[in-house]
Specification:
Strand content: 5-15%
Number of domains: 2
Helix content: 40-55%
Largest sheet: 4 strands, antiparallel
Radius of gyration: 30 Å
Distance between the termini: 100 Å
Amino acid sequence: MPQMQLPIFSNGVNPITNDVGYEKKENTVVYYCGTMPVFSHSVDDLDSFRMIVSQLYVNGTVRQANLTDAFQIKPLALKRWVKRYRAEGARAFFQSRRGGSKPKVLTPEVRARVQDRLDQGQSLSQISAELALDYDVLRKAVADGRLKRPLKKKTRAQIESGARS
């Protein structure tokens, strides 16, 4: 008859199951299997956390419910991490991520053409019609600073009316 293993953890270790637990020591999280430390990472290292949690689940060491309860993570998030772990292994969490997407409409060449027209005093609606661009694309580019509208010059009438006020 197999002998029952008691949940034996030192003080400060938070049990995930009867066999697996974790402990936060200063700026480090240490994972234990019984009394033996098996993995550790910085508290701020989210990639290592995702990897070890996925590994515990994929290896059958810990059930999903235990992980979601112990770390207060959403089951769907854990499923995404596990899918990623199964597809690419542990390295999937440490590969450099692709940068932001390249501009699809306002490429540097198109942006330069639009800026030239803005500098000449054309309106956004005129430029969008002339270059077959969506007006909102241009409006948003001006709003977030990728395109600059030239400062409007005051006419003599505006200057004289401002002086009278």
